[in-house]
């Protein structure tokens, strides 16, 4: 990199890291990704996604085509995507991974990517436990720009740390309907079953049945274990 590029990289990093340390919710993370996106080459498309084992969810999206995303999610594209399944904790260049392959399913995926102008870009993948995060920047220019590549290498690990923290703060609500969530929220607020029943407008039996249903979905032994599983808490207090 030239001296001028090193100076710009340092400037960008300091500004972005100053913003990142203030991120304390998903909305703030989404705003941060938008700021980062504006520093990338023109035409870049930026996305941050999470998979908690129950399907991929978009945390931030700047310019990715919804039709491509819908098709990717519905077809289980991640099972055939060499980028999604690429090495973790390092810079991934799409042009190196989306190359000729003898696997017919991957070949079909790569052809679909080519048809949607998705053969060039960079990604960073990390997985902790059952949660996988991927941040990707699509575009020919971003893959060829040394400044952008160094910026992703330097910044992605810190962004992943923040994103994982936010993901673990959000309970896993898979399989719950609106009433389940209302009851669960009040249980987490410390209300008794009687108090929950009064506030939600159902019987105490219904409250207990719903909580037992949620426990069953998470294979939780009791309500304390349910909270641990909802928030992916795995502290070892014996080490203190």
Looking at this protein, list some descriptive labels:
5 strands, globular, 240 residues, five-stranded antiparallel sheet, alpha+beta, 11 helices
Could you explain the architecture of this structure?
By secondary structure, the chain is an alpha+beta fold. It contains 11 helices and 5 strands, in the order ααββαβααββαααααα. The protein has a 5-stranded antiparallel sheet. Strand 1 and strand 2 form a beta hairpin. The longest helix has 24 residues, at 146-169. The protein is globular.
What can be said about the biggest beta sheet?
A: 5 strands, antiparallel
E-strand count: 5
The dominant shape is: globular
Strand order of the largest sheet: 2-1-5-4-3
Low-confidence stretches: none
Q: Helix segment count?
A: 11
> What value does the Rg take, in angstroms?
21 Å
End-to-end Cα distance, whole Å, is 46 Å
Strand content: 5-15%
SSE arrangement, N to C: HHEEHEHHEEHHHHHH
Helical content stands at 40-55%
On the 0-100 scale, what is the average pLDDT?
Answer: 87
Helix-strand category:
alpha+beta
Could you give the topology of this structure?
Blueprint: H1 3-20, H2 26-38, E1 45-51, E2 56-62, H3 66-74, E3 92-93, H4 94-97, H5 104-115, E4 121-128, E5 131-138, H6 140-144, H7 146-169, H8 178-188, H9 193-200, H10 204-217, H11 223-230
Antiparallel strand pairs: 1-2, 1-5, 3-4, 4-5
């Amino acid at each position: 990199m030239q001296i001028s590029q090193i100076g710009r990289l340092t400037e960008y990093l300091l500004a972005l890291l100053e913003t990142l340390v203030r991120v304390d919710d998903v909305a703030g993370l989404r705003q941060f990704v938008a700021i980062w996106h504006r520093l990338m080459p023109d035409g870049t498309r930026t996305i941050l996604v999470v998979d908690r084992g129950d399907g991929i969810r978009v945390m931030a999206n700047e310019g990715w085509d919804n039709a491509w995303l819908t098709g990717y999610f519905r077809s289980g594209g991640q099972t055939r995507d060499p980028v999604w399944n690429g090495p973790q904790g390092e810079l991934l260049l799409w042009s190196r991974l989306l190359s000729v392959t003898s696997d017919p399913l991957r070949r079909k995926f790569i052809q679909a990517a080519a048809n949607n102008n998705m053969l060039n870009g960079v990604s960073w993948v990390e997985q902790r436990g059952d949660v996988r995060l991927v941040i990707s920047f699509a575009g020919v220019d971003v893959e060829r720009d040394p400044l952008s590549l160094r910026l992703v290498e330097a910044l992605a690990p810190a962004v992943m740390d923040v994103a994982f923290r936010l993901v673990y703060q959000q309970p896993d609500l898979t399989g719950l309907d609106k009433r389940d969530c209302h009851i669960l929220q009040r249980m987490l607020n410390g209300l008794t079953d009687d108090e929950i029943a009064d506030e939600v407008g159902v019987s105490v039996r219904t409250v207990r049945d719903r909580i037992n249903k949620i426990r069953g979905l998470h294979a939780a032994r009791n309500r304390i274990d349910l909270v641990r599983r909802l928030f992916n808490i795995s502290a070892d207090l014996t080490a203190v």
